[in-house]
């Protein structure tokens, strides 16, 4: 196909030039750009490499294509021109944004992976991480349950910090952000992800780089094109697995057979879990248009993603808009880029997951599914721990999250080798939260006759940098050097207000004045912020096309750190050897590439530190009576740590990239080892001498190591048919080495057993109910439990967990340090993803399977719901009355293997033949997908895809909080004009 | 999956167990373990005596298992009968012998003496005993034969007519049971038969745990009671409750204090309660509602009986439902009562049975006991004389040294000790409804002079 | 520029700019700590703290397991049966709370000392110092009572290695010394009344603490409690008004000092716990409560009453804490004590409209005598037990009934009378008059002041007030068996040093008897 952007107004005889662009092998090059020099008019080649352009006979054509050396050909009044483009050795491989630098895969010496548009996931993609999931070895993306408002968790090369700073840095077109900012992008607007896993490159980001970096490049207008695209999917979402409890008849039968005198029977038969469900949907529409010439291009897009969850009143809607433009000036010496994107995301949450789902499962099934005459919801007077789940669903809990991010770049080509670039960005976020707990539900009574909340959190983030880039080709080598200074400023403000004491639910959170009671502390506001100053130097050097060295040096200064520790130095170095370029391999045709890499780098983590953590400050500490008048007093509200410093991570990586047989077989293997020092964490400290029991401090060490393997095989590649199988697998190992260190010159030890997750609910509010721990010498998130070899009959048909003695004291003692053992780890040892795609003529099919292995899950849901002690106040699983377990002791009995293999989606696509409408339509593609097809697992709970990645109070624990599993059936349409 | 196989542990811990088809147990397990038996006497427990309360079926048999160590089980069967009586059967235990049997389905206390290798099988049934029950403390009223249900509870029930008073639950065999021990007998702790208030009172219509010991349960009301006792095999606890069928018979309430007032008395018409000496006395031995008083009354003047502050038991002539026909005549005087002859009288008021009966008779006070030559009631020689001038009642001289006892005699007061009084220093103190008064020692020949109007007296 | 310029938090130099700010931020700020709004917080413990440790370990109340409710991993059973472990969360939470406030008092004292150094002639700073030191002494009093061998930390700038335990008798001497030194500078005002000294450490409060120290001196000055024997009276002495006195004499003297300040019994026992109890003439030290103004919570009505009972008042109920059989027996001894109905909900209860509270289809009826440590599965699973009735229902309460107007009573004058009576009796004198005052106010008949009667009276008067553990220990009855609790070891009269505290500071050692 051929497209003429503009017709030249050049004088002289205009002739029609036709031609073909081919590579050295004689294959046509599709999409090569043909530009008439000195003008803005140009065309691109069609499927057969053909083009046709109106040009003056004495003009000159510039023919270019990514990865090939640009040719300039004088027309010399020819009507037909054959062009053979030479591969550009330098640009042979894909262009990759490596942090601040750009390069090609050829010149990279660190572990960097790129996922372009064509590699992204198919199926229903509602946020950017969905597009990336399962694609890159060592990048673990996990989402639990089917809640459309819930985000995914991501870990790159595992968890390397004890603190909250384990999310990777997200850099969108040069703008620093986080996962939330990433969600402000429509997945369809993303051109590519580049994942920097290894410190030899993440060190460019110094104190921000320890948890990996995701560099996102968005789609821009292309020179010489104009286009309009529409993408849309519509899907129906339905529950395919949820928890089934004893039904009302079973409940009655159990009450009868066990002779419970207390049981309430309200005469109804209600499956409360089912009552909460609905059929959800997902729709996703996006329109984009753009165009460009050699000097100007732009692109704009608008999109909406709309999801209704399978739980009533649970929904998410995300509106996105994006616009980019660039212009060259002064003989292309100066380039101006401007980008802007924004989004507004409206979420309606299921308020308090655990409470809601626990209530739905445990509520007495003989209660009706309707309200009482007085409008309240019937509550079981005996069931303290649960509320009527249908009443809970009337809690309105919403969030409106708006992002606006703009960025601009000025690039000045001082000369052929030297570029000066100035970049600036501004990101604004306003997140408004609203919730209202009605007066007619139990929670509303608990809160004091209804409670409304409205609050706003805003952030203003400014960043800017100036960089000087020197690139030069020498006879046998190539040098790429970068110097950069950068400043960042983060500013956060917000307020919140609560009101209680409502006599009508009419106003909800829309008129807080309708609430009679506003207590001290019900209104609040804050303002804080921090800034970072940085210097970066980078040198990338390649010699003889096969020896590559990269050195990064970054200095970061942060206002958040202690007075004497504000600056940190983060160096890295890496070497690569392209073995395939050596003479003894160069001529072997089967080998396309073999490259060895080795690197070392240091990065930091500062996300765990909040502003002012190092200062002893006083804040409002409450109201007290002073001279009979309630007066606000101020106090030191935490232990300040003037000694706060960076947490640093040193990482070593060795790897190999290889491709064979015309790139039909590709492989990447990496081994890494990292050690994190001065671990930032809110440590338990002794009271006294400390005033508060927690101190954010730098103590201890942790190590991580892993092996990552990616393989791609294309066993079949013909014109009509192509099969590609790719897989990645990451083995990861983690160990907490130490949790002691010095603080202000004195030895400080963390507690021996730091507790993470514990079971909640009726009968679990204390005692020995912890499940996962952090313990020195063990992996992060380890199960430390009493050992049970099974259930034991008391002789009368009641069972309890038989607990074994493990220590010298023959008595059973469930305390830490007594009859407990390390029973496994919560985080997977192996994570894998497999992608298969097959094309037959116009049809294609793609599928992804991902899995995790070697970890365990504590099935707290079954422990709770099999315990007959709570019956009949709380409902139990259908098996429970028969199994007669009267015990809720937390032992390893319910610790199960968490291994699973999940078929994430299957997508069938069809590309219409648009030959007949080629004048106005470029392509039409129709897809049909099923998401969440099946999970292979031996785990007996609802799903093994619980939180096995994030270190928090839910890690490794499946505890009555699981959102029902849904499956989405969707149709998609994509049209390019 | 991992846990759907339900790994079942069958370890047997060290201990002594009962098992077999006659039992309700699935084998040697915590619920079937025999535990130390509490004993009466100096030794509260013996290591070789272990027991269990349990339900045994006739159509089945059972053995005693002794596990010396984890899973090291030796089974014992019937090694021969030692003793057979209504309330206990004793066999020797013999390793691997024929299993034991019982003759009828029942609730048993099975006690094993591991040293003597003896098993004692005691059927256990309960009854209610006590003053509040039809048979009093002489014997229990049996509850029904126990029933056993699949909720692993044994239930005894029974209806009986109760009157206000104390009671206990008792094992039909008595207050306890003796069994053999090495070189003698051990008495099983009376938990076989003695459930009292050691934990708390019994609650109407709600099962609550009961434990052996403690003082009597009491009921303030009478009526038809249905008692339920339950033993829970799982928790090994007794629970009991009662239910009152139909209307509870509420005993009448009598005024706490009655006073005699009026111009006929030495107390005048002051508000009843202001003069302590005007108070009437109660009658001991469970005769609530009966009051008496000795005082001087002047002829022709009025008197009344009332509780404190002219409360609603304010009795003038018209309020009295009947006067003692054997007593002296009482006449009306402006709503008050009046008598014809001045003198010292015994006045007895009977408010029982919804009546208000009054008796006024000339005082008759007697001495009693060792100091008056024996315990014959109303012995003429022991009658005190009345001195109207001094308004005193004077005793005959005591015959021997000893403890002085005195009482008023009146036909409405059944027994002498129920209307006793004595002189302490110079004050007359009355037994009222209390227990024995402190002894007052006198020597032979002493004389008691009593002035009842102000409750003073002397012994000289 | 990497300097931080906080806007919503205040640097120190702003916080002490004027005398008002100095008072606010060195003294007043401590009072916000006395009440609590979270587990283990506040001197009332707020549901998992000091109050529970002093109540459920004694013989007056328990939190029974009711089927699925209140088992909580055995937490409450362990506490009731004297089987608490060294990792008990209440023991740890209370330690952290008490020392946090001590840390804050030390910060205040350091600051005040620095200010005194700048301005040695200042007249108000020494008064502030005295008040803060007396507050600190009160916190050490609680620590000594609960944990016995605790570190004395007197300034905020201490290294971990310098935090060393003192013996109980040393802590006792320290508290005594600190209070004695502060008393002359403290105001004589009534702290329970609204006004300048509302909720503050004033002289009567300090006198009360001194009386407690003296009355319990045999326990507190005893460094070996595992022998279950206190030290003889007279081993320690108190200097009262220049004269050396035995603890019994000192108790009487301090009690008399409080009487002289004008305290008297309220004619109505319940007035002390009413919504408007700020006007009580009897309360000596309270936690000021107001559902809108203050954060302090009263969890105990909520935790005790049945859900339906609470719901009738549109409040929250957790259906938990109940009176023990032993407590009920004391109330029923001889005749039913008139305070029983004012202390407990027994039997049927009525809503604000006067109608019986309905529990589903039937009338709710508490079963006081059906109480046991585990009532699971019984017909009375949810209704067993007499519930807390002492504090008046506040219809304007917030947070389901946790935020109320009734000030939480920590110390009151009835205790002064009973302390004096007890000291007299222990000294071989007659304490009938003081006991009789307390009984007469309650409408109970006279009883002679014997030790047994006094211990009973302390329960009758102070049930649900968090005093019982200390009383039982002083009377040597803490370890005696009661329903559902066998005899316990004498070392249990002191709580363990929390295991986490030991692991974080290896200089500290565990209290005798505790292994796990
Ligand atoms: Ca052990
Ligand atoms: Ca108040």
Tell me about this structure.
The complex is a heterotrimer of chains A (977), B (460) and C (516). With 977 residues, chain A is mainly beta. Chain A is built from eleven helices and 53 strands. In chain A, the strands form twelve sheets. Chain A has a 22-stranded antiparallel beta barrel. In chain A, strands 10-15-16-13-14 form a five-stranded mixed sheet. In chain A, a hairpin with a 4-residue loop joins strand 22 (396-413) and strand 23. The longest helix of chain A has 11 residues, at 248-258. The model of chain A is unreliable at 1-11 (pLDDT under 50). With 460 residues, chain B is mainly β. Helix content of chain B is 0%, strand content 45%. Chain B has strands spanning 8-9, 15-19, 35-36, 49-56, 63-69, 72-85, 88-95, 106-113, 118-123, 126-129, 141-142, 147-149, 153-162, 165-171, 177-181, 184-188, 208-210, 217-219, 222-232, 237-249, 258-261, 281-282, 290-297, 304-307, 314-315, 322-323, 330-333, 336-339, 343-350, 357-362, 365-368, 385-387, 392-394, 402-403, 405-408, 420-424, 427-430, 441-442, 448-451, 456-459. In chain B, strand 5 and strand 6 (72-85) form a beta hairpin. Chain B starts with 7 loop residues before the first strand and ends with a strand. Chain C is mainly α. Chain C has 19 helices and eleven strands. In chain C, a hairpin with a 2-residue loop joins strand 8 and strand 9 (362-363). In chain C, helix 7 (168-182) packs antiparallel against helix 8. Classes of the chains: A mainly beta (977), B mainly beta (460), C mainly alpha (516). The interface between A and C is large, with 95 and 96 residues. Strand 30 of chain A pairs antiparallel with strand 1 (10-11) of chain C, so a sheet runs across the interface. Bound molecules: calcium ion (2 copies). Residues 278, 288-290, 405, 407 of chain C line the site of one calcium ion.
